[in-house]
Amino acid sequence: MTSVPYASDEAAPLCARTAAQLRWAVELLPDGPLRTDVEAVTRRLADRTIRVAVGGRLNAGKSTLVNALLGQRLAASGATERTTVNVWFRYHPLPGVTVHLVDGTSTLVAAGPGGGVPVDLPVDHRQVSHLTVRTPDRRIDREFVLIDTPGSDSPTHLDDYAMAAVRQADVLLYVMHSPGEVDRQALEEFQATVTGAGLPARNVLGVLSRMDAVSDDRPPDQRRADAHRLAARAAQRLAGLVAEVLPVAGLVAQTARGVDFTERHATALRGLAGLDEPARARLLDVDDQRFLGRLGQLPIPVPVEDCRELLDLLGRFGIREALSVLDSGVADTPDLLAVLAHRCGIEQVVGTLRDRFISVADPLRAHSALEQVRAALARTPVSVADGPGRQALRETFARLAREPELRRVALADVLQAHVRGDLVLPEDASGHLRDLVSGRTTVERFGLAADTPAELRDRLRELTRRWRSLESRTPRAHRRLVTDVREVLELSYFAEAGAAAELAVAVDAGAARPPETPHGAESSNRSATGRKAPRCAEEPTIR
Description:
- By secondary structure, the protein is of the alpha/beta class.
- It is built from 22 helices and nine strands.
- It has helices at 14-26, 33-44, 62-70, 160-166, 181-194, 220-237, 250-256, 263-272, 277-284, 288-294, 304-327, 333-343, 346-356, 361-379, 387-400, 404-409, 411-420, 427-438, 442-446, 453-473, 476-496, 500-508, and strands at 50-56, 87-91, 96-101, 106-109, 128-135, 144-148, 171-176, 204-208, 244-247.
- It has a nine-stranded mixed sheet, sandwiched between helices.
């Protein structure tokens, strides 16, 4: 069939090119579920930021983490979990809350405390599709859109309602108090449900939300070290389900990045900093009730109500951390909060979101969109009427398979297999793979001494030759992973070095040979396994 002209402008973002291709295919689809699904994916590509869903079990600390990431208390949080619906947080100059109902209608309702989620809804939550909380703070969705989901009503799975929001996300932060077997079961069910929708393990971050509850009898610095060791063990146990596990002290994170901590609270902390260590221990090495009871016995004038608010804002763990920061010589309140944000783990979560996902938002979202279209094709029965549209979608996959950045997103799976120990690589190849996955620039991705066309072409030729050699020596069970890396390098060569046109001519002439193929190699282009090796000119499958 005749295809739509393919936009070759490399300055155009991948999402825009993907959306253009999908819009073309949609016009060839008849009205029905498949067309509706593809249209929804196309509309989603209009967003310029990734979507991050926060999920987990009941009372796991999801909403507290959401507030920390938002920088203000908009999500309902507390000792009793109150989130019963999926909540989206978006910037808008006019604050408010919109209730979107399952019948497609919507209504405005009064916002809750601080302009956030209402405590009560005027309709049965079972009639609600989701809420949108609008806030005039431009920071809210500048880097990512946050979706808060209800806690699962069963300890062994995320319920279908929360799953509906997760399927619309690019990244999941899975929050848990401790990485027990129950969380493994929940994550396994989650993976089985949404992998086909384009959210594999590489896009899931585990968050241990109670760093402050680890080794409760030890000083804060030792608790932090213990929490990181626990997170590392959790990542090993949950290998294949999450990309990484990070520890966070949720309450401290919410306060350190929020707006509730004032100079009055800082003054109260400075008063407590005047206590010697035995007096601090008598005050803090007890439960919350006894802490409050001993405030009146302090030998320094610190208002009891201010200390009560400190307990609500930071907890005893956070108060200890704050006193330690003050002891180190930090005096200004903004600097105090910045150090607390680092120590409580929230800055590492934000940094990981930026490094792993926001920095590659364009290919990540394009890849996710294509996977969602694949899932829609798989679940929709084939009909004669939608034949031309399905063919158009297949052509779209084939065109976009030539995009190195789109293929590079999937290399996170290869790196994860290597980290787990499934794929054994030489030390230099391990470094190449890590650079290729995490590098933000051409220089970082390919280890260039200088970012010049000639240097890039030579480096890509060298790397491709190394990975082709490694491919031939890799056991069959994991060879496909090495092949993926080699193909990305080849595609990068032709895209980055501007040789795509030369390759097309060579293929038409029947004489194509990848640039790294040694002189004298078999012209049949067969790999060491005897199977025909895929050429760059062919359209690799987008996984």
